[in-house]
Predict the structure.
Amino acid sequence: MQVEEALAYLNGARQAGRLAQGYVIEGPLRGEATQLARGLLSLLFCGEDDVPCGACRACRQVSERTHPDILWLEPQKKSRQISVDQIRDLQSRIYQTSFGGGWKAGVIVGADRMNPSAANAFLKVLEEPPGESMFLLLTEAPQFLLPTIFSRCQRLAVGADAVQLPEAWRDQLVELLVGCGDGYIEGSRIVAVERNSARLQALLKEVMQVATDHEKETADEESVDESRDTLDARIGARYRELRASILRALMGWYRDIFLLLCGGDPSLVYFADQLDVLTARANALSYREALANVATVEAMNRKLEQNLPEPLVLTDAFHQLR
C-alpha cells in the first residue's frame, strides 16, 4: 500500500469515528513508515477545517516532532533497545490531560526493539488506554512484536517489500538457503550446519563493513566531531538495522515454505524465483517442522538483540532449522 492510499483510508475512518487506538505501521523506518505516522498525526492534530493543511502550527509541530501532545520513542543507547523506563514515561504522559484539549499520541519507532519488560508494560497500556489516545508502532519486523500487542492493533503495511535486499546480499543469502538442505540429505548434518553458519557470519561481516564505512563517511561529510564511543554507537545502530534486513529475508524464506505447505497461493511467496526449491522443501517437511523453523528464526533475532555472541546464536539456529 502506498502512503497516500493509507492516509485516504485513515481519513475516512477518522470522519466516520472509527479510528483504532493502535496501529502497527510496517515499512521503512527512514521512509514510508515515518511518513505515514506524520500524516496520520496531522489528521488528528491539524487545526484547520481542511485537514491536514500542512502549514498550521500543529502540522509544523508534527513534522518537527515538537508537538506537546505527541511523545516519540526510539531505541536508546548502544543496545538499540526500547526500555521499560521509556514505556513508563509514555504511560505517564498519555494519561495526563492533553495540552490542546484533544488527542494524545505515542509513537514507538522500531517497536520490535522493545525489550521483554518494555513490551509487557506497553501491553498493559494498550489494554486500558485513555480516551482520545492513539499509539503508532513503527516497525520493519512486525513478526517480532508480542502477538498480544499485535492483536490489539490494526496493521498498515506501506512502502517497499519487507524482504528487499541489495542484490549482492540477496544472492548470497539465497545461495546459502538453497544449499541448506544438501548436507542434511547426504547425512553430514554437522558439516552442513558449520558451513551454513560460517557463510551467514561472512555475510554479516560484510554488512558490518558497510555500516562502518557509511557512518564514517556520514561523519566526515557533516564535519561532525564526535567521540569514538559515539561513532561506535552509530555504527552499531546502523549494523543492527542492516542485520535486521537480512533476518527479515531469512524469515521470508521460511515463511514461504510454511505458506506453501499450508496450501497457500504460490503467487504470494517473497522468493518467487525460487518457487521450485521452496515447493520441494515444503513437500519434505511436516507442518510442525515448518512452523518450528519460523519460531527458530524469531528466536534467533531475539537472541541477537540481546547481544548474545553471533557465532553461537547462528550455529545453534542452523542446528534447529530443517
